[in-house]
């Protein structure tokens, strides 16, 4: 999933772009993302990847790579984001170890 | 004419403020002392304004409305944007902008053919929050932030970014008020791969090669050898932020960069370092 393969018009990319900018969207994201997915018109494949917190799959579907660790932070929080933090670990498990689903 | 009195290239990865205590002690010491030293040098040059150039991180320019560059024209800036606040671990701050200068830069760059937009409501993440914390801890030097597209194809080439820096220098020297002292700050890099498989990896060989290349003071060689492909190979999602340093280099000329510090910090998930160029001495080739 190199940067060159990003799908600019993918609904997930529009959703994540906005989610980081708007408290109404990033607050309690892990509980509220279902509503957002509906609002942005995500495909079934995209929705399944979010339900599974499958960061690797989101990359394969065309989510911008720069957004992928941010997806992990939207679910797991971004404070004190060292290599053993929950969000870095989830990213590592899904993408670096290649296990995909983290839920 | 106005003058560029200081120029720097530096990393801004959030670990430097967010989880530095997780890095080995020698890295903490080297980076803290190095970035503080860079701040001392910057402030000693007594700039009236800092013109910063950094990755937008796809935060303000959406994927379907991209520009190569975006000049921030507000009179005042606040950061970090709320969602990034606990991540960068930087207390909320306000720094003055310089809207008249920003508009001159925006108009001058557009007139010279650069794909430039402007915004007065930019959100700041680590791109400015980390450098400002070290370089201007009192937030007392006005900032003109120029966000750029470093990570969404098509990304402006190193050659184009260098030409951007040359144009910036020309505008500073011909269109900004006499006696104005300008510092240029290109920030991003060094090697890192946010969003890629090398998330927990750093390309130390690339980083040391790049820093040594800048120390030669030969922009043509930098442009010949530091290709986008080479940067992407050293970390697809982040290393290309070094085009912000190359833009700064365009405003510098043939001066050699001086490296203050470098650490291949796996704990911070980024090759971390900073360089500066001495601007108030004439170059050998001028």
Verbal overview:
- Chain A has 103 residues and is mostly helical.
- Chain A has helices at residues 11-19, 23-26, 29-40, 44-51, 55-61, 68-76, 86-96.
- In chain A, helix 6 packs across helix 7.
- The model of chain A has no long low-confidence stretch (mean pLDDT 97).
- Chain B has an eight-stranded mixed sheet, sandwiched between helices. In chain B, strands 4-5 form a two-stranded antiparallel ribbon.
- In chain B, a hairpin with a 4-residue loop joins strand 9 and strand 10 (270-278).
- In chain B, helix 4 crosses helix 6.
- Chain B is globular and about 45 Å long.
- The model of chain B has no long low-confidence stretch (mean pLDDT 96).
- The chains are: A mainly alpha (103), B alpha/beta (286).
- At the A-B interface, helix 1, helix 6 and helix 7 of A face helix 3 of B.
Order of helices and strands of chain B: EHHEEEHEHEHEHEHHHHEE
Helix and strand content put the structural class of chain A at: mainly alpha
Average of per-residue pLDDT values of chain B: 96
- Helix proportion of residues of chain A, in percent? 55-70%
Strand content of chain B: 15-25%
Shape of chain B: globular
- Count helical runs of chain B: 10
Low-confidence residue ranges of chain B:
none
The chain pair forming the largest interface, with residue counts per chain, is: A-B, 35 and 35 residues
- Report the major sheet of chain A: none
Helix proportion of chain B:
25-40%
């Amino acid at each position: 999933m190199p940067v060159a393969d990003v799908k600019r018009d993918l609904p997930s990319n529009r959703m994540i772009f906005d989610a980081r900018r708007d408290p109404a969207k990033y607050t309690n994201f892990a509980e509220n993302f279902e509503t957002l997915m509906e609002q942005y018109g995500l495909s079934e494949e995209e929705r399944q990847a979010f339900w599974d917190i499958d960061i690797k799959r989101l990359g394969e579907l065309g989510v911008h790579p720069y957004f992928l660790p941010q997806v992990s932070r939207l679910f797991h929080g971004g404070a004190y984001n060292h290599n053993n933090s929950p969000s870095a670990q989830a990213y590592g498990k899904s993408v670096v170890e290649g296990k995909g689903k983290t839920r | 004419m106005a003058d560029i009195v200081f120029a720097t290239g530096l990393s801004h990865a959030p670990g430097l403020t967010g989880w530095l205590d997780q890095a080995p002690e020698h890295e903490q010491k080297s980076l803290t002392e190095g970035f503080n030293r860079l701040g001392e040098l910057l402030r000693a040059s007594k700039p009236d304004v800092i013109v910063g150039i950094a990755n937008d991180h796809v935060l303000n320019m959406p994927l379907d409305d991209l520009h190569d560059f975006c000049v921030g024209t507000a009179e005042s800036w606040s950061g970090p944007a709320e969602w990034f606040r606990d991540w960068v671990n930087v207390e909320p701050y306000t720094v003055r902008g310089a809207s008249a200068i920003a508009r001159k830069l925006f108009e001058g760059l557009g007139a010279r053919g650069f794909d430039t937009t402007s915004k007065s409501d930019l959100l700041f993440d680590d791109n400015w929050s980390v450098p400002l914390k070290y370089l201007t801890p009192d937030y007392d030097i006005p900032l003109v932030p120029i966000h750029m597209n470093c990570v969404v194809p098509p990304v402006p080439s190193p050659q184009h970014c260098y030409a951007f820096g040359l144009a910036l220098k020309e505008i500073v020297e011909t269109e900004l008020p006499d006696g104005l002292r300008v510092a240029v700050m290109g920030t991003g890099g060094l090697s890192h791969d946010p969003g890629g498989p090398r998330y927990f990896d750093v390309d130390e060989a690339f980083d040391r090669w790049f820093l040594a290349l800048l120390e030669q003071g030969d922009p043509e060689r930098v442009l010949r050898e530091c290709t986008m492909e080479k940067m992407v190979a050293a970390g697809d999602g982040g290393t290309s932020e070094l085009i912000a340093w190359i833009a700064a280099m365009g405003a510098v000329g043939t001066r050699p960069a001086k490296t203050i510090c470098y650490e291949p910090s796996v704990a911070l998930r980024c090759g971390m370092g900073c360089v500066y160029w001495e601007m108030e001495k004439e170059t050998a080739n001028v």
